[in-house]
Design a protein that fits this description.
This protein is α+β, with helices and mostly antiparallel strands. Helices cover about 30% and strands about 30% of the residues. The protein has seven helices and eight strands; from the N terminus they run ααββααβββαβαββα. It is globular and about 40 Å long.
Length: about 220
Amino acid sequence: MRARIPSPLLNFCFSAIAVPDNLRTVIDSALEKFPCDVESSDGFRCTLRTLQPNDEQQFQEFFLAIPEDERLFIKHRVTERAVFHQWCQEIDCESNLSLLAYGENRIIADGTLHQRQGGWKRHIGLISALVHPAYRGHGLVSILTQELIEISTHCGLSRLEAEFSGDRIPDIRAFSDAGFRELVRLPRYVRDIHGNPHDYVLLGLNLIPDDDLLAAAD
């Protein structure tokens, strides 16, 4: 069994892998490749780009097209236009970076990287991905996930997490294919807007191997 790291040493490890001070510059560098055109394994083509101020209406239309049970971990009321006005007019890539898949003149998928600017989990990013029901089956979750992993590495994050309800099996499989593993599964732990219980699943991915993390304290 691996020895437990004393708190002072653990704090040192975390500070060694902290998010860079020049995070804005790092993110700008990581996003230089966007917009870019991508093609899935089945030949479907779309454009990846970041969220823009004029996306307000289309962004809400995209979220309203997502089935209610899949919005379980969205902590905002997507039925309210004011939410999207704030998201699009106060874009903060350092805290919430939205990477969109755009095709056929609309937003067809969204991948988001959430970063904490402080605290004991500042080295852990939280990512999510949603795909418009009409564009599923093209591997868009996998495409967005791989791009977000690359961006997270540039940002100095050492771990990523992703939350799901247990019935989102295709998305869990896509994240697992990208290297995520199941950390926690709690039966009937969360409830949807109708009060129905769902399993809670937390997946995790190490961007820096555990041995390298421990070596940071040597």
